[in-house]
Automatic annotation (TrEMBL):
This is MFS transporter. The keyword Glycoprotein does not apply. It is found in: Cell membrane. PANTHER family: CHLORAMPHENICOL EFFLUX PUMP RV0191, PURINE EFFLUX PUMP PBUE. It comes from the Bacteria. Residues 389-398 have a biased composition (Low complexity). It comes from Myceligenerans salitolerans. The keyword Nucleotidyltransferase does not apply. The chain crosses the membrane at residues 42-63, 70-89, 95-116, 128-148, 160-181, 201-224, 236-255, 262-283, 289-309, 330-351, 357-378. It is a multi-pass membrane protein.
Length: 410
């Protein structure tokens, strides 16, 4: 794999650390700024909302420009946002810094995914995407404990100084290691928005919402499940979350490789496995050994869908891969918020701390149905040969997309 992908992965790590690293520092931030913990929580939820909006809006603003130039500009925005947070004299300034940093999140992964696929052979595209997203999954593992530890030892601002430094290193890496990649000839906002007229693009978006809603809906309240249902001590929870993160990291990389081999079959299999894992997890949550196994599998299968979902939406929008890629990132973040909200609703309704696992299983089942409907529609529209091409591998799918797939999806 090209070394430039390491720079993209480091950017993914920094962005992931920005999103998750603040979670364990909210009490200190709330006390420092004299706000309630619920108000401090807006620094997290406001970030996620901005990601969903910025993924589409900022991508629309940069579709005409060289992709390397866009990545450099986004990383400058990322550095600025975290620098504002590091020196913020009050809560509103801090919130503004979070919004600025979040604006680049979706667009960075959207543009970065396109750049990653251009840096490798066609049969390595999903693997390249998974490597870039690997930085994000590492941040999922290390973000909360690392950010919390640094903040507790040196003050919460030190976490944002560290993230700013990661942004500077990433910026240098992109400038030195990532090749210049021009926007598609004639690329403009109208052409990019054409992607949203395609049925298969909306299938990918909906599957992304449901898949990540399933994972995050279960994971958001997993600490309560581990302590109140499985009987683990609170001290064991961080280590158990690391187990989940290790599974997520491995699953992301493996998911990229199998998506390169067989895009559609791999996604169908992973969505079916996700529903099965969540169901078994819910049924065996009182058993500690089964719970540890469930955590590993949930991370591996859930995050294993990410590279394939990213590549699928790009495959069906070959004339607008950047907008489609960013739309997928937005969809995943909408899924995060929706799954967490729905899991909270079931707990508040008195269904217990296992209920988010059942919510996740239901959302995964819904995502599988949507994916199967989309696959059947593709088969009917393009015929068996085109379907086989798309299913056989990402490179062939992208090659065929302008003629056969696009016609079936419009």
């Amino acid at each position: 794999m090209p070394i430039g992908l390491i720079a993209l992965a480091l950017g993914g790590f920094g962005i992931g650390l920005t999103e998750f690293g603040i979670v364990g520092l909210l009490p200190e931030i709330a006390e420092d700024f004299g706000v309630t913990e619920s108000v401090a929580g807006l620094l997290v939820s406001g970030y996620a909302l901005t990601v969903a909006v910025g993924a589409i809006a900022l991508t629309a603003a940069v579709v005409r420009f060289d992709r390397k130039t866009v990545l450099v500009s986004l990383m400058v925005l990322f550095i600025l946002g975290n620098l504002i947070s590091a020196v913020a004299p009050d809560y509103l300034t801090m919130l503004g810094g979070r919004v600025v940093a979040a604006l680049c999140h979706g667009a960075f992964f959207g543009v970065g995914a396109v750049v990653a696929t251009k840096m490798v052979k066609e049969n390595q595209q999903a693997s390249a995407i998974s490597l870039m997203f690997g930085g994000l999954t590492v941040a999922t593992v290390a973000g909360v404990p690392l950010g919390t530890f640094l903040g507790q030892q040196l003050g919460w601002r030190s976490t944002f100084w560290a993230i700013t430094a990661i942004g500077v290193v990433t910026l240098i890496g992109i400038l030195v290691l990532v090749p210049a990649i021009e926007a598609a000839k004639g690329s403009n906002l109208r052409q990019e928005l054409v992607a949203f007229r395609k049925f298969q693009v909306w299938v990918s978006i909906l599957v992304g919402v449901l898949a990540f809603g399933a994972v995050v809906g279960a994971f958001t309240y997993i600490a309560f499940t581990l302590t109140e249902v499985s009987g683990f001590s609170p001290a064991a929870v961080p280590w158990l979350l690391v187990v989940f993160g290790v599974g997520a990291f491995v699953g992301n990389l493996v998911g990229g490789k199998i998506a390169d081999r067989a895009l559609t079959p791999s996604l169908v299999t992973l969505m079916a496995l996700l529903g099965a894992v969540l169901t078994l997890f819910a049924l065996t949550a009182q058993n500690q050994v089964a719970t540890v196994i469930g955590l590993v599998l949930l991370g591996a299968v859930g995050l294993g869908t990410a590279p394939g979902l990213q590549l699928r939406i790009m495959t069906f929008a070959p004339e607008a891969p950047t907008m489609a890629s960013s739309a997928n990132v937005a969809a995943l973040n909408v899924g995060n918020a929706f799954g967490a909200w729905l899991g909270g609703v079931t707990i508040a309704a008195g269904y217990g701390f296992v209920s988010p696992l059942w919510v996740g299983a239901s959302l995964a089942a819904g995502g599988l149905v949507v994916l199967l409907v989309g696959t059947a529609a593709m088969r009917r529209s393009t015929g068996a040969s085109a379907t086989t091409t798309v299913a056989a591998g990402s490179g062939a799918a992208r090659q065929d997309a302008p003629s056969s797939v696009s016609a079936s999806s419009g």
